[in-house]
Specification:
The complex is a heterodimer.
Chain A (H helix, E strand, L loop, with lengths): L2 E9 L2 E8 L6 E6 L5 E7 L4 E8 L3 E7 L7 E3 L14 E8 L2 E7 L2 E5 L7 E2 L20 E7 L7 E6 L2 E5 L7 E2 L22 E7 L2 E9 L2 E5 L7 E2 L8 E7 L7 E6 L15 E4 L7 E3 L17 E3 L7 E4 L5 E4 L7 E4 L5 E10 L1
Antiparallel strand pairs in A: 1-2, 1-28, 2-3, 4-5, 5-6, 6-7, 8-9, 9-10, 10-11, 12-13, 13-14, 14-15, 16-17, 17-18, 18-19, 20-21, 21-22, 22-23, 24-25, 25-26, 26-27
Chain B lengths: L1 E3 L2 H4 L8 E3 L5 H11 L3 H5 L10 E5 L2 E2 L12 E5 L5
Parallel strand pairs in B: 1-5
Antiparallel strand pairs in B: 1-2, 3-4, 3-5
The chains are: A mainly beta, B alpha+beta.
């Protein structure tokens, strides 16, 4: 069946949309959208092709933008997107997730909001910030941000979220109560003897394995990890990778054993691709071994990084991968990372990448 | 009174105008009137404190105003975005 493949970008200066056909060889770029606001995450609901964009503007505050015509027109709202009196103001919306008939947004400073009217209004999922650890949450370099929302595919009461730098938290009761899920995840930035706290980990990327809700993958500031029990325990899968540092973690849409990472050279070494040579690293066995995929990616003088939400997969038969750099270049692979091409460049710094596949 | 809105704000609200006439006794009332005309505009100008957002300036009689600043009848009110961004 003829197909349209869309890549949705959140950038420092607005949202952009690229579109191609099933071959994913030729791409057309549209944008910037959202009045060039800094946009941190753009997602789409594949059931109705509605696009949502989360961001925040220094002048006008946070908002979630919405388009029901693939970007031609947009509305925006932050109605209800605030904490209780006396708590800090919301600087920006940072992450989005559509699940079980609701739209969720993560915020800076870290907190979770939900909308039951498709983004027209928002309510605070207050249980997360009521966790006793909240007063001790510390910001990472990007701020105290809730940057990943991973719903359980079958159970609306369950959800995992990731906060830099508070760690992973899980709810089993629809957000009323939350539990840290960080056991086994290192904090190399803490003193000797304190490397494995209950919370405070600097999680960068969180992904669920296809068809296995209890299998989670995590790219952390301090290593790469897999959990096979819903995040209760994590084990390192960093052996064979060129560093312990990176941002995104992208699960294969159908194979729970396959994960894609894009390691950077290290947190205090510039945070660019190792040796200034770009590569995506793929495991086909849940992290037991890794293969570097670099054909078509720059192999000299590459001093860029790829941020936490800036790599994504599509759901095509031969899975497409997309990695957007903090220097405004978008790389794409139509064959699960085997070969790569530059499909956009000279864009603003890319904060996020997501995909949408539609009938032509 | 005459109220001037910045283009970066009116772009966000289709149908809004850069210049309009509103009767209000305070800046807070003025913003409430804007919210009535264009729902959502209050959130763009004010945080939940409530207070004017840090990089929003409202000038009354040529001076920066707050939400409780009275608006003399006939006075012009100018809403501007402060220097920010990057």
């Amino acid at each position: 069946m003829p197909t349209r493949v869309l890549v949705l970008l959140g950038t420092r200066k607005g949202a952009f949309i690229l579109q191609s056909d099933a071959a994913r060889a030729d791409w057309a770029l549209r944008g910037p959208f959202c009045d060039t606001w800094p946009i941190n995450h753009v997602i789409a609901d594949p059931d109705n092709a509605t696009i949502y964009a989360a961001g925040g503007n220094e002048w006008f505050g946070p908002a979630v933008w919405k388009s029901t015509d693939l970007g031609e027109t947009w509305s925006h709202s932050s109605d209800g997107m605030h904490y209780a009196e006396g708590e800090p103001g919301i600087l920006a919306a940072w992450s989005l997730c559509r699940a079980h008939g609701r739209l969720y947004a993560g915020a800076q400073p870290a907190g979770l909001f939900e909308s039951r009217d498709d983004g027209a209004s928002w309510s605070h999922v207050a249980g997360l910030r009521q966790h006793p650890s909240c007063k001790d949450w510390q910001p990472g370099a990007g701020g105290l941000i809730l940057h990943a929302i991973v719903p359980h595919p079958d159970d609306p009461a369950q959800m995992w979220i990731a906060i830099s730098a508070a760690g992973v938290f899980h709810t089993a009761d629809g957000g009323t109560t939350w539990q840290p899920r960080n056991s086994g995840v290192r904090c190399d930035f803490l003193p000797e003897g304190q490397h494995y706290p209950e919370f405070g980990q600097c999680v960068h990327g969180l992904a669920m394995a296809a068809g296995q809700p209890n299998r989670l993958y995590q790219q952390n500031h301090c290593g790469m990890y897999r959990s096979d029990d819903g995040g209760r325990n994590w084990q390192s899968i960093e052996a064979g990778l060129p560093s312990t540092f990176g941002f995104p973690a992208v699960a294969h849409p159908r194979d729970p054993e396959t994960l894609f990472l894009l390691p950077l050279n290290g947190d205090v070494r510039g945070r660019y691709v190792p040796d200034a040579k770009a590569a995506v690293w793929r495991t086909r066995n849940a992290g037991a071994g890794w293969q570097d995929l670099r054909r078509g990616l720059p192999q000299q003088d590459a001093y860029f990084g790829v941020l936490r939400q800036a790599m994504a997969a599509d759901c095509m038969d031969s899975v497409g991968l997309y990695a957007g750099t903090n220097t405004g270049t978008l790389f794409a692979s139509p064959d699960e990372g085997e070969t790569w091409a530059t499909i956009a460049q000279h864009l603003p710094p890319i904060h996020s990448v997501e995909t949408l596949v539609l009938p032509a | 009174m005459r109220v001037l809105l910045p283009a970066s704000l009116t772009r966000l609200f289709p149908g809004s105008t850069a210049e309009l006439e509103i009767e209000a006794a305070t800046v807070a009332e003025l913003i409430a009137a804007l919210e009535t005309r264009w729902p959502g505009m209050r959130d763009r100008l004010c945080d939940a404190t409530p207070a004017l957002r840090r990089h929003i300036n409202i000038f009354v009689e040529g001076r920066r105003a707050g939400l409780h600043t009275p608006l003399p009848p006939g006075e012009e009110v100018v809403i501007l975005t402060a220097i920010s961004g990057g």
